[in-house]
Design brief:
This protein is mainly alpha-helical. The chain starts with a helix and ends with a helix. It is rod-shaped and about 70 Å long. About 90% of the residues lie in helices and about 0% in strands. It has one domain. The protein is built from 3 helices and no strands. The longest helix is centred in the first third of the chain and has 48 residues.
Length: about 130
Amino acid sequence: MEINFFKQVYSYRELCIKKDLREVAMWELFLEDINEDLGSLLKLEKLMINDARLAGTLHGMRREVILCTAGLCKFEQELKKELEYGKSEYGDQHINLYERHRMRYLRIVEKHHLLKKSIYKRLSERKN
């Protein structure tokens, strides 16, 4: 009976780590898309808006995306290592680390959305 319980806990731990790995991979793909989009927005800014402050904001955002991606890659490596070699329980420490990465990712997505909206608004006002 006790062996079944430990097997079930280990199975749950493995399942949770695999779920986290899939989500981290998805976040990395979205961050790649955001990085490409920021490159396009930088070109738009240079060609049509010519605002040094906006260009600085875009470069800062791009830096933030790259740093977040690097952090996610490191987290992904840690998860793979934990999945393959780890014996520790899937507990609060792991959940807190996961949530910290998730919140950082969500802040970047929101910031990107607001920045994109403000650029499009400036472009539409420029035409009139």
